From TrEMBL:
Coiled coil: none
Descriptive protein name: Short-chain dehydrogenase/reductase SDR
Signal peptide extent: none
InterPro entries: NAD(P)-bd_dom_sf, Sc_DH/Rdtase_CS, SDR_fam
Listed GO MF terms: oxidoreductase activity, acting on CH-OH group of donors
Lineage: Bacteria, Bacillati, Bacillota, Bacilli, Bacillales
Keywords: Oxidoreductase
Length: 291
C-alpha cells in the first residue's frame, strides 16, 4: 500500500479497546492490512508446508497469506478466535493452496505433539515453522506483575516455542526453516511491558543459540522483531489513549501494518535467505537500535 494510505489508516484507528487477550481482528476498525495487493507471489515456497502459530490474525494472518501467495500449504494455530481463524483459512485457500486451522493452546506442552501430528497427517510434511503466538499484559508498577501473569506470559511467548520446535524438529530437513517473532522491546525495553520484553529478549537469544545448534543439519533459524504493528493485541491490551498514540513515537510517526512484516517472513523461509541464520530482521518504522 502507498504511504499516504497507511498514514490515513493510522489516523482512523482511534480510541478502541477490547476486553480479552489476544484480541479479535474482526472487531478492529479499521481492520489491519493483512493482504497487500501490491505483493505478488512468485512461487518461492511452492511445494512447501508452513505452520504459523497465532496465525488467525495480526502478523500471523499476514504471514500465512503471503506464504499462500508463494505457493505453500499453510496450517495455522489459534487459541479461541474461531471467527478470525475461519476467515484466514478461507483467505489462504483463495490462493489455490490447502489450509488447516487448529484450535490449540500452544502454551501447554501436551498440545505440541498433537499439533505437529495433525499437520503431518494433513500434508505429509513440514518445512517452515513460524513461532508467532504471543500475549502481553501492561503493568506500570513492576510490583504488580504477579507470578500468574509472569507464568502466562512466558508459557505463551517463550515456552511454546520450545514445545513446538521440539515436536517439529524430527520432521524438518536440510533447507527447512524456523522463524520466531521477537520484538523491538527486546532491544530497547518497555517500562510497562517488562515480562513481555523479557520473553522477547529470550526469544532473540533462543534464535541465535538454536541456529548454532541446528546449523549442521542445514536447518536455518531466524527471527523478525516488529515494532508497533496494528494487530488485535494492541486494542486488547492498551487504553484508548495509548491506542490512539500507538506508533507515533517512531520516526515514521505511525504504526505499521501486518502486511509490512510478511515479506520478511517470506524471505527467511525461502532460498533467498540461504546464507542467513541466527539473525533478526527489524521492522519498526525507523526505531533504530544500536545493540
Amino acid at each position: 500500500m502507498r504511504e499516504e494510505e497507511l498514514e490515513q489508516m493510522h489516523q482512523q484507528a482511534r480510541g478502541q479497546t477490547q476486553d480479552q487477550q489476544p484480541g479479535i481482528e474482526a472487531e478492529m476498525h479499521p481492520e489491519p492490512v493483512y493482504d497487500d495487493p501490491e505483493y505478488v507471489g512468485s512461487g518461492k515456497l511452492k511445494g512447501k508446508v508452513a505452520l504459523v502459530t497465532g496465525g488467525d490474525s495480526g502478523i500471523g494472518r499476514a504471514v500465512a497469506i503471503a506464504y499462500a501467495k508463494e505457493g505453500a500449504n499453510v496450517a495455522i494455530v489459534y487459541l479461541n478466535e474461531g471467527r478470525d481463524a475461519e476467515k484466514t483459512k478461507q483467505l489462504i485457500e483463495g490462493y489455490g493452496v490447502k489450509a488447516l486451522a487448529l484450535a490449540k493452546d500452544v502454551s501447554q506442552p501436551e498440545n505440541a505433539q498433537p499439533i505437529i501430528d495433525q499437520v503431518i497427517q494433513e500434508f505429509g510434511q513440514l518445512n517452515i515453522l513460524v513461532n508467532n503466538a504471543g500475549k502481553q499484559f501492561p503493568q506500570d508498577d513492576f510490583l504488580a506483575i504477579t507470578p500468574d501473569q509472569l507464568k502466562e506470559t512466558f508459557e505463551t511467548n517463550l515456552f511454546s516455542m520450545f514445545y513446538l520446535t521440539q515436536a517439529a524438529l524430527p520432521h524438518l530437513n536440510k533447507e527447512d526453516s524456523i522463524i520466531n517473532t521477537s520484538s523491538v522491546t527486546a532491544y530497547r525495553g518497555a517500562p510497562s511491558l517488562i515480562d513481555y520484553s523479557a520473553t522477547k529478549g529470550a526469544i532473540t537469544t533462543l534464535t541465535r543459540s538454536l541456529a548454532s545448534n541446528l546449523i549442521e543439519k542445514g536447518i536455518r533459524v531466524n527471527a523478525v522483531a516488529p515494532g508497533p504493528i496494528w494487530t488485535p493485541l494492541i486494542p486488547a491490551t492498551f487504553t484508548k489513549e495509548k491506542v490512539e498514540a500507538h506508533g507515533e513515537d517512531t520516526p515514521m510517526k505511525r504504526r505499521g501494518q501486518p502486511s509490512e512484516n510478511a515479506p520478511a517472513y517470506v524471505y527467511l523461509a525461502s532460498r533467498d535467505s540461504s546464507y542467513v541464520t541466527g539473525q533478526t530482521i527489524h521492522i519498526n518504522g525507523g526505531d533504530y537500535i544500536t545493540s
